[in-house]
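Researcher: Let's do a round of design. I'm pasting the structure tokens now; please hold your answer until I've finished.
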């Protein structure tokens, strides 16, 4: 499936949509930095056999890096929401290229996150459902239900929910993000003019 980032790389997005795509790309990078520093901190806390002053100093530095990475990630997240809000205020001509008329900015941000890869998970203890995205942020199940009701997202029911159900954008969902017109259903064949011979369906091939 072609993602929004691939459309952007090919130069197929208009300027307002490209701004949102750039902001979302930075958000994904920011989340990857958070994941890296979190894993590094986990290794320091649980994998080091002996905690001495040197390890404690490394832990302090790792916490500082994690705090800074989280702040940068949050800044990029706010930039995505701000770009979507600008589209919403710009008028229907710009907004319709990135979202359907009844799609809010938070739901559009959720649709963008799902486009980058996402799975629906169920907590084994609480049985609570939530969407985990490859870019990091979790999406509320209620937001997924709204996107599914709008026909923008589909789930792969062949996977058990406790193992993670892959989510993908439908054709309508991709069209909402890229501004690509949906393919029209084939119309009726043109009527044959009375007296025309032979009919088009029976005309021999040369």
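Researcher: That's everything. Go ahead.
Model: Designed sequence:
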């Amino acid at each position: 499936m072609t993602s929004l980032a691939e459309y952007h790389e090919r130069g197929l997005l208009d300027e307002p949509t490209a701004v949102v795509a750039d902001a979302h790309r930075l958000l994904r990078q920011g989340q990857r930095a958070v994941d890296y520093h979190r894993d590094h901190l986990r290794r320091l806390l649980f994998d080091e056999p002996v905690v001495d002053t040197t390890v404690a100093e490394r832990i302090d530095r790792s916490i500082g890096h994690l705090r800074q990475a989280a702040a940068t990630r949050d800044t990029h997240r706010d930039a995505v929401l701000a770009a979507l809000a600008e589209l919403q205020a710009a008028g229907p001509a710009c907004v319709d290229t990135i979202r359907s008329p009844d799609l809010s900015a938070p739901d559009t941000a959720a649709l963008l996150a799902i486009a980058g890869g996402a799975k629906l998970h169920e907590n084994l203890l609480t049985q609570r459902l939530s969407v985990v995205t490859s870019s990091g942020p979790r999406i509320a199940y209620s937001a997924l239900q709204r996107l599914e009701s709008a026909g923008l997202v589909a789930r792969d029911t062949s996977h058990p929910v406790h193992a993670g159900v892959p989510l993908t954008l439908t054709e309508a969902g991709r069209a909402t993000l890229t501004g690509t017109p949906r393919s029209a259903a084939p119309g009726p064949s043109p009527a044959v003019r009375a007296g025309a011979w032979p009919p088009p369906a029976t005309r021999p091939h040369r």
